[in-house]
Amino acid sequence: MSMTLRRLSRAATAGLVAAAALTAAAHSAEAADTLGSAAAGQGRYFGTAVAASHLGEADYTATLDREFSSVTPENEMKWDATEPSRGTFTFTSADRIVDHAQSKGMDVRGHTLVWHSQLPSWVGSLGASDLRTAMKDHINGLMGHYKGEIHSWDVVNEAFQDGGSGARRSSPFQDKLGDGFIEEAFRTARAADPAAKLCYNDYNTDGVNAKSNAVYNMVKDFKSRGVPIDCVGFQSHFNSNSPVPSDYRQNLQRFADLGVDVQITELDIEGSGSAQAADYTKVVEACLAVDRCTGMTVWGITDKYSWRSSGTPLLFDGNYQEKPAYDAVLSALGGSGDPGDPGDPGDPGDGTASCTATYTRTADWNSGYNGQVTITAGDEPISTWTVTVTLPAQQSVSSLWNGTPTWNGNVMTVKPSWNGTLAAGASTGFGFTAAKNGSDAAPTVGTCTAS
């Protein structure tokens, strides 16, 4: 999809996000039985890394759509994927993830703009002046394509050395542009999309140590000089050799005290059973204890696709079954689910097919408006849904997306176009543009029926 078409469609996709957020809030108030709804009840998001190549797998997308409220493209927004040749951008795979997320009302974290790894070879061959220009052009090209659609960007990733020195990591940017490249990247990013949260992201900074101290001092300096930084990401990759630090919460808090949000951005914990569950609980409880910890992202959905698959570090096993760690996270978030309900793809449950529909106006102008209807499945999976929308007599619908309408006077009956199948608790929706024709009244959404 071209940048122009993406911008033309933004009024529609923004409606999906807004409506789904309202539905999630209502859902969490009733029964926080998924990770996303439970986190929303705590004022936070719960996200996952997503690979575009897996979106065609039914269990993968069912688990994604049911459980998570935010997505991070795992590799699809990195430099080698988006600008393999200088000045030639490709967004096909990243667009697929963003479009899917928007259709389900999920936020998107952009990952990542400037990083020493996964660079196309041409970047490293540039001299300093050309590299500075290329870095800024890359930021503007990538952020410009998704302007207004990304919640948070990892502007610079892993710029400090691991270990005890706290020094900067050698990279084309550091070696040729010096320490100032990080500030330049953040200032360029702010101008490219003023609405997006701008984050610095790194690993092994989860506790107080030389590396996290170096990042802390950089953030403190940036805040004192007005360099635009909104958040710090803590990757939080843990195992028995690198456990959850005892000062994890305190470290998150000291960054928050600088006036930035903190986000847990790539969480995975190797292990199994009650020990793994206990470690996940520590992480969630630490985030909930820090007011400016705005959300958590696990680095993948299922163990079988994890970059550390042999360590089984995620919340769902290779068959998408909930692990004890899942139950622990849900409980720590204040959720009320039980193993397998919802959660096991294909679990038959013991209720009847049902759905609810909620309406919101997502855009408004003198002569018309955009409306969005979000459909949420009940305690059972559904294969189709039907919703009626009654418009004020003067109004008329000029376009409708993600649904198939039929008309009886001013009553519009909408059925799915492609989005009829929903897992228990999952949401989808349709949007429409209406001409007011002198009436600013809201349409009435009837009962949602499902089978």
Global structural class: alpha/beta
Q: Which range does the strand content fall in?
A: 15-25%
Poorly predicted residue ranges = 10-31, 338-350
Number of helices: 14
Structure summary, number of beta strands: 18
The main β sheet shows up as: 8 strands, parallel, barrel
Classify the helix fraction into a percent range: 25-40%
Shape, per Cα inertia axes:
globular
Global mean pLDDT: 89
Query: Major sheet: order of its strands?
Result: 1-2-3-4-5-6-8-9
The separation of the N and C termini measures 33 Å
Computed Rg: 23 Å
Explain what this protein looks like in three dimensions.
The protein is α/β, with parallel strands linked by helices and 451 residues long. The protein contains 14 helices and 18 strands. It has an 8-stranded parallel beta barrel, surrounded by 6 helices. Strands 12, 14, 15, 17 and 18 form a 5-stranded antiparallel sheet that branches. Helix 11 links the parallel strand 5 and strand 6. About 8% of the residues have low confidence.
Quick gist of this model?
The chain contains 14 helices and 18 strands.
Sequence-ordered SSE layout with sheet pairings:
Elements: H1 3-8, H2 10-30, H3 35-41, E1 45-50, H4 58-67, E2 70-73, H5 79-82, H6 92-103, E3 107-115, H7 121-124, H8 128-145, E4 152-157, H9 172-177, H10 181-192, E5 197-202, H11 210-225, E6 231-234, E7 237-238, H12 248-256, E8 261-269, H13 273-289, E9 293-298, H14 324-332, E10 355-365, E11 368-377, E12 385-390, E13 396-401, E14 404-408, E15 411-415, E16 427-435, E17 444-445, E18 449-450
Helix pairs in contact: 2-3, 8-10, 12-13, 13-14
